[in-house]
Design brief:
By secondary structure, the chain is α/β, with parallel strands linked by helices. The protein folds into 2 domains: 35 residues, no CATH class; 180 residues, NagB/RpiA/CoA transferase-like (Rossmann fold, 3-Layer(aba) Sandwich), CATH 3.40.50. The chain contains 7 helices and 12 strands. Strands 1-12-7-4-2-3 form a 6-stranded parallel beta sheet, sandwiched between helices. It has a 4-stranded mixed beta sheet with strand order 8-5-6-9. The longest helix is centred in the N-terminal third of the chain and has 14 residues. It is globular. The two termini are 39 Å apart.
Length: 224
């Protein structure tokens, strides 16, 4: 631990009028952090995994996301190109510099123009991976990081998300379990995205794209 960190924690302990944790208290705290207690868990998501995937699809579509289901991630580039053509959108995408995403056969989609970078003002379509899908609400769990610029989730008008079916969990708590199991370090930002951006603030009329993308399209792969 750095001296600066020690100094900060020392000031906090002094403000709380508390010294260092006793050994028993430290053990109890570490146990709580390792296995956080559960609150009420919605019954609708306590299902076998195939039914959780079906629930995720229903909930995502009810939140106005669109979805294509493919056999494997290798089919994602073709699915992205087909979606853009179907929606008559420009064949230009800004893609997250994610190694797994970059390894897919994008070169076969010669009509696509691809740039791997963070989003900028004026970008029309982004393509990103999702860390997980939450079945109870059809929500995508997105992590920030060098390979996952958060701007791609919010700046472009159209957001296309690649998600593996084996990353769909029942409830939010299980998403955090998945994250803790993968890494001891938390990302700087975790975003939950349910459907395209919307707002009913103006005359109680629902407007899509009020604070982010007009469209959210999910490409769901049954296998890697």
């Amino acid at each position: 631990m750095s001296e600066a960190r020690k100094h900060i924690l020392s000031n906090i302990r002094r403000g709380l009028q508390r010294g260092l944790l006793a050994d028993l208290s430290r053990v109890e705290l570490e146990a709580r952090l390792t296995h956080p207690p559960r609150n009420i868990i919605p019954a609708r998501a306590q299902l076998p995994h195939p039914e959780q995937v079906a629930l995720f699809i229903r909930m995502a579509e009810s939140a106005l996301a669109t979805l294509d289901r493919i056999a494997s991630l290798a089919e994602a580039p073709a699915a992205v190109a087909a979606f853009l053509e179907r929606e008559r959108l420009p064949m230009e995408i800004v893609m997250a510099p994610d190694p797994e995403l970059a390894a897919l056969p994008w070169a076969a989609q010669t009509a696509l123009h691809i740039e791997c970078r963070a989003a900028r003002d004026g970008d029309k379509t982004s393509v990103t991976p999702a860390f997980a899908g939450i079945a109870e609400t059809g929500t995508l769990m997105m992590l920030s990081g060098p390979h996952h610029p958060t701007t791609l989730n919010f700046l472009p008008d159209t957001h296309i998300v690649a998600l593996r079916a084996d990353r769909i969990v029942g409830v939010y708590e299980e998403g955090w379990d998945l994250l803790r199991a993968q890494s001891s370090k938390m990302p700087r930002t975790v975003n939950y995205i349910t459907g395209p951006s919307r707002s009913g603030d103006i005359e109680q009329t629902m407007q899509l794209g009020a604070h982010g993308p007009l469209r959210l399209h999910i490409v769901l792969a049954d296998h890697e």
